Amino acid sequence: MTLVLLPGFMTDPDLWADMLPRLAPLGPVLHGDLTRDSGIDAMARRVAAAAPERFALIGFSMGGYVAREIARLAPERVRALVLIATSARADTPAQARRKAAAVENVRRRGFSGLSRAAILGSVHPDRAGDAALIARIRAMGDRLGGDVFLRQAGEARTSDLDRLGAIACPTRVVAAAQDGLRSLDEAQELQAGIPGAALTVIEGSGHMLPMEAPDALAEAIVTWLRAQLSGASTIGS
User: What pTM was computed for the model?
Assistant: First the structure.
């Protein structure tokens, strides 16, 4: 069964590099393209159009919003859904103001990469001195560039809390206990709103779970995904 991986804001396939050895035995891996569209709906339609007839979805952060939209758009095609470090909430007014200011700044001055403060806010405090990790995160943003930044940051994130109940496929929610960008409450809202969803909380990681804790994340999802893709029923386990 094909796995479709959906990255987060200003991240690219390197986000998943440390997990690929654990994911590859499950089936072919495709990386969904979230770089060419400005809204979640348009991103979801593009990914669905490029995906095979049946597939499993793994969505990280912004990619979790897209993954849920695909699960509602094509419920008969999505075999299983994994939502990592994400939320169903809309941008808060403060978040919307920060994004608007960042977009305006890039339009006026050009894109000079993700700031160190933004990168540090996305990882566990203990990783602040991890130069290799910080460099990898920065490099993803540099590769994507200003046009992608403007598309991904330029549209306000809306809530889908009232539509979570429409997701019918087996779903696993994974949260980082020390995530500075997404709270445990947000993960619990996803679990409560999606019928039969299970929740795993991983200690010792910030928001960038696939890069900070790839082994723990793989442990949380690979056995569960294998059961779903083999036809076993383990919803909520």
Answer: 0.95
